[in-house]
Amino acid sequence: MRVQHYRIAGEPVIVRSVETSEDVRAFLDWCRSNHNRPIAFDTETTGLDIYAAGFRVRLVQFGTEREAWVLPVDSAAGLVCAPQAAVREALESLPYLLAHNAKFDALAVAAHLGVDLVSLWRRITDTRILAHLLDPRGPQDPGGIGQGLKPLSARHVDPDAPDTQAGLYAEFRKLGHTKETGWAAIDLDNPLYTLYAGLDVILTARLFAVLGPLVEFAGYGRLSEFEHAVALVCARIEARGFLLDVEYTETLAARLLAEADEWSAVARRFGVSSVNAPAQISAALEGMGENLSETTESGAIKVDKEVLLPLADLDRKWQRIGAREANPLADAVLRAKRASKWATSYADAMLSRRDTRDRIHPDIASLQARTARMSISRPPLQQLPSGDWVIRRAMQAEPGCVVGTVDYQAVELRVLAALSGDVQMTAAIHAGKDLHAFTAELIYGPGFTEYHRKVCKGIGFGKVYGGGPDTLSRQTGAPLDQVKAAIRAYDRAYAGVRRYSKRLQSRAEWGVKEVVTPAGRRLPLDRKRLYAATNYMVQSTARDVLAEALLRLDERGLTEFLRLPVHDEVVFVAPADDAKEIGREIQTAMAVDDFFGVPLTTDLEIGGRTWGSLYGAAA
DNA sequence: ACTTTCACG
DNA sequence: ACGTACGTGAAAGTG
């Protein structure tokens, strides 16, 4: 057994690395004698892509505030002692486990060491969840530090705790590896590797010693349980994965890449060597006599889609307007950028993330944004183009099955009506009215047009988000004076909403700079952006509506059909013959009859074999 | 590392 | 004193 010593917060800690079968027995003895204490665990792996061919768990660590055990389990290492069975035994029997960002480690040991995910998860407390409840701000937000183990340890455990990740990257480079290759290549007994692996669990145990009582003291006990349950459902969705149509996606990627090349060649003829270089584009456009007035935050000339589309005589749906001669460079830049983004961010990302059964396991972060919203990454399946089916067509149901969705109808506006108690808005919802059309009628009278409805939809969202007349005018494309009039009319029609927003803001102005959601979540506000209060409240509450729905779906045994949560909807896959029935069950489980006086109703859509079929692709 | 852009709800 | 659209993930260029 190798023993390494270190100091954390001025106290000596010890890291033991298992080398012999005798060490394995000593580890199991240690587990037994610490059975009743919370034990932090962690894994070191070959990479982040748990389901990729060649992925391996290399180390599994267990530890308390003072002591860590590091066990090598890498199947490719030809180990003298094989502690896999002991690791499994520990993971299956220790009653009280801790982990930071537990989902990753739990999925890794479930997929590669044969540990049962559900029974393991029931015994885990995730310190990242605790940290998010206590402060959901990201590292970029004013006053925020994020939920990383490093910044949390620095704040709550030891300001001089080592940055183990950065330290390892430096070691990788020294050994001739890179950030990416180092994780798989570093020797299992590299002293820095084992030391840092051990320190991570010691830090997690110490972090819990601080955050655990804070969570209880803040009254977050139930919310914490709720979040752990939601995280498990999301982890199971992730583990199941979503089937990729590889042949289609490969053809699509090649086609998009060729398209990007063609349009890049056109841009090159106008002196733009890269369509991703804004300075080149603005210089070339100005050389062609175009007048560019919009600037970015840092003062550079803006050449985003909003600027380029009018120059190319295209509307927001890329239809020819006929107002001017299309600028061929603007047109080429737009098309090249779209094609290459779709190729790299979506098609290639999907292909590179598939497992041996052609399934995609995106990283579902069930508790991510400041508002607790979920995020999905690698690949970003919540952000696929919705105006065109070609990308979504890549994801498909298993043979004999179809893809469907259930989404909430105008959930953010309904949540706003519920929270504000606005009488008029609540009544309109109860009457089953189209809220945006109803608003249009209130403002423009019974003769309102489809255009008026659109303006009102924009204003409705803009109000929720706290936008002013200028932004709303730009966003909706409606003239400023009309928007201003509509805002006035909106405030008159929905006086309760206006009162509610004002109340949230003035409370924050004079009292604590936060909003408290009905779920009991305390969301800090940036002092310069108190107007975001209503948005945080509504967005966060809508998120919790979906999160609670996921738990109801799980209770009813419907998790196996789920493929993705997408903010206000779930994507599911079911056998074609049962899809309607299963879809209805999902609808029923998600619907809320009385959410603070407002019904939250759902829409069901059943498509064909692919996700794209719900966006216009042939079934 | 930072900026810019673009995809979604 | 004033008015501010919110929340994400990802790629690529620049320095």
From TrEMBL:
Instruction: State the top-level EC class.
Output: transferase
Q: Domain 3'-5' exonuclease spans what residues? A: 12-216
**Single GO BP term:** DNA-templated DNA replication
Q: Which residues form the DNA-directed DNA polymerase family A palm domain?
A: 388-578
- Does the record carry Manganese as a key word? no
Q: Which UniProt keywords apply?
A: DNA replication
* Pfam families for the chain: DNA_pol_A, DNA_pol_A_exo1
Family classification: Belongs to the DNA polymerase type-A family.
Task: Please give the catalytic activity noted in the UniProt record.
Answer: DNA(n) + a 2'-deoxyribonucleoside 5'-triphosphate = DNA(n+1) + diphosphate
**What is the name attached to this protein's record?**
DNA polymerase I
Gene Ontology terms for molecular function = 3'-5' exonuclease activity; DNA binding; DNA-directed DNA polymerase activity
Show the PANTHER family listed in the entry: DNA POLYMERASE I, DNA POLYMERASE NU
**Matching InterPro entries, A to Z?**
3'-5'_exonuclease_dom, DNA-dir_DNA_pol_A_palm_dom, DNA/RNA_pol_sf, DNA_polymerase_A, RNaseH-like_sf, RNaseH_sf
Query: Origin organism of this chain?
Result: Amycolatopsis sulphurea
Q: Does the keyword Cell division apply?
A: no
EC number(s) per entry: 2.7.7.7
